[in-house]
Amino acid sequence: MDDKKLKFNSKTIHGGQEPDAAYGAVMPPIYQTSTYAQSTPGAHKGYEYSRSANPTRTALENSLASIENGNYGLAFASGLAAIDAVVKLLDPGDEVVSTNDLYGGSYRLFKQVFEKYGIKFTFIGMQNAEKIAEYITDKTRLIWVETPTNPMMNVIDIKAVSVLAKQHDILLAVDNTFATPYLQTPLDLGADIVMHSATKYLGGHSDVVVGALVVKDKELADKLYFIQNASGAVCGPMDSFLTLRGIKTLHVRMQRHCDNGKAIANYLAKHPKIEKVYWPGFEDHANHEIAKSQMSDFGGMISFIPAGSSYEDAIRIVEKLRLFTLAESLGGVESLAGHPASMTHASIPKEEREKSGVVDSLIRLSVGIEDEADLIADLERAIG
Ligand SMILES: *Cc1c(COP(=O)(O)O)cnc(C)c1O
């Protein structure tokens, strides 16, 4: 089957998947094994040791490559392990230009782990792609983009950044966790590497922690595979299975996330007790036109600031929510609410955080796929 010709809604189910060679199992078996029998040293059926490769992980990696329109997928123990592998492509002295309002854990990994190995990170607003050029030096080797950004919902023009990256011979990596390939495929827009916290929408059920990379280029895939195997933060067989199962319904879930997200964004925007709502689907969103051109819909992630705009105002609301669970993470079938300043983004210094808009009163919603009316009723009660 040439699954490159399939439409997205078929790729989620069939992309890179074949019935299992052993017994024809339609669903990939969970090969819960560390090692594989060899008939004579070096003679095996493609698998030697499960850090290097495992058939269940291969099934997931093929699916990831298919849905992101890439050629090679790599599955990691977490999203951060996937990012870690990308940064390990670099050498001491190299520089990275990164989005300034990015996932707090990515920021922490860059600043607190990799800076001490001599890699330099510059964090900038990327909403205006031309401005990025000012920060590129002859040592810049990687541009790290997250779009829509977390939690401010800024949208970055992937195509424009990729033109710039190519001019300077710099790798462009895009964290596609928020949008998922249902809404945007960065490799088609010129990115070299797509990264996911598959913990979120790809897995979709808040039951695994998994990371992913997808690339088109064989040489780049080989380098990343070398790092994956050498460092060893691989995705286990059970988690590979669960993530694959999640991906099969990605398109159905994402559409409902988008529909519920739209309803809730509009509800909040009209609410007299809400000061500001961040959602790329609004026509007056600063990057709405870019969002429209590179995304097929606007997703279920929304941030907002309640009237009063104080830390206490935000905490009062998140504590009163019932259907929205107050928790870290996002992208599951269930709705979650978060308080970035004290939760996901607590590892970013307050001054740094507030520069990009992550104020103490900001609340972030991951709108799930429950009934829209129930979700709005929950918000109505909590906002009061
Ligand atoms: C959660 C998240 C990560 C980190 O992924 P883990 O699976 O938690 O390691 C990276 N980027 C974004 C946008 C995320 O939401």
Topology:
Elements: H1 8-14, H2 55-67, E1 72-76, H3 79-87, E2 95-99, H4 104-114, E3 120-124, H5 129-132, E4 140-146, H6 158-167, E5 171-175, H7 180-183, E6 193-197, E7 211-215, H8 218-231, H9 237-247, H10 250-270, E8 274-278, H11 288-294, E9 301-306, H12 311-320, E10 325-326, E11 336-338, H13 350-355, E12 363-366, H14 372-383
Parallel strand pairs: 2-3, 2-4, 4-5, 5-6, 10-11
Antiparallel strand pairs: 1-7, 6-7, 8-9, 9-12, 11-12
Helix pairs in contact: 2-9, 3-4, 12-14
The structure holds pyridoxal-5'-phosphate (PLP).
Residues 78-80, 103, 105-106, 146, 150, 175, 177-178, 197, 199-200, 209, 211 line the site of pyridoxal-5'-phosphate.
Description:
- Helix 4 (104-114) links the parallel strand 2 and strand 3 (120-124).
- It is globular, with a radius of gyration of 21 Å.
- 50% of the residues are buried.
- It starts with 7 loop residues before the first helix and ends with a helix.
- 36% of the residues lie in helices and 15% in strands.
- The longest helix is centred in the C-terminal third of the chain and has 21 residues, at 250-270.
- It has 14 helices and twelve strands.
- With 384 residues, it is α/β, with parallel strands linked by helices.
- The model has no long low-confidence stretch (mean pLDDT 96).
- The strands form two sheets. It has a seven-stranded mixed beta sheet, sandwiched between helices.
- It folds into two domains: 3-247, Type I PLP-dependent aspartate aminotransferase-like (Major domain) (Aspartate Aminotransferase, domain 2, 3-Layer(aba) Sandwich); 250-383, Aspartate Aminotransferase, domain 1, CATH 3.90.1150.
- Pyridoxal-5'-phosphate is lined by residues 78-80, 103, 105-106, 146, 150, 175, 177-178, 197, 199-200, 209, 211.
